[in-house]
Specification:
Layout: H1 3-6, H2 8-17, H3 21-41, H4 47-65, H5 67-70, H6 75-86, H7 89-99, H8 109-120, H9 128-139, H10 155-178
Helix pairs in contact: 2-10, 3-4, 3-6, 3-7, 4-6, 4-7, 7-8, 8-9, 9-10
């Protein structure tokens, strides 16, 4: 049984969302611009300045590469890839806060990312789709594996959180392997 067969609530959420490829392309351009705008303020040489955009792009490609294995079809592939693309935009906010001497706990970068996304994507009304996406992004950096209870018993959000966390960890291990 693949990931999507184990998580029918996620397939239903995506189907009911009405998200199109055009939506995703539009959103991706806005998030891309957010990465660049935030990176302009991050000091040159900071590991996250360019690294997080590369991480985001590579993770999006990974979602496509593993779509069949995961049971993702059509727009599901684009949505999971987009969520991975967005998940670390908050790292740049975290870097800027640290540069200004403000405290910023590592696990908060997911929450910072949600704030950036809400602003850049002009989301004023949080639909069930965005609630699940934002919950997954907000908790992906937790020091422990998220639980269904952490996701307010939202099974679709839990599925997104687990796949995002797993893909993020896998990407981190692959990056480490490339440098060893």
């Amino acid at each position: 049984m693949n990931f999507m067969e184990r998580n029918p609530e996620l397939r239903e959420l995506i189907r009911e969302s009405g998200v199109t490829e055009e939506n995703i392309e539009n959103w991706k351009q806005r998030v891309w611009q957010a990465y660049f705008d935030l990176a302009k303020e991050v000091p040159d040489g900071h590991v996250w300045k360019e690294g997080k955009l590369e991480h985001a792009k590579h993770g999006m490609e990974e979602a496509r590469e593993h779509a069949e294995l995961l049971g993702l079809r059509g727009i599901e592939v684009d949505i999971v890839g987009f969520i991975f693309f967005c998940h670390d935009v908050g790292r740049l906010v975290q870097a800027l806060k640290a540069q200004r001497g403000e405290s910023s706990f590592d696990r908060l970068h997911g929450i910072y990312g949600v704030e950036v996304l809400m602003e850049r994507l002009e989301i004023f009304y949080v639909t069930p789709f965005w609630r699940s996406v934002f919950a997954a992004i907000a908790c992906h950096a937790s020091s422990r594996v998220p639980t269904l209870e952490d996701m307010s018993n939202d099974r679709a959000a839990f599925a997104l959180a687990t796949i995002l966390r797993d893909m993020d960890k896998r990407e981190g291990f692959l990056k480490a392997r490339r440098y060893t």
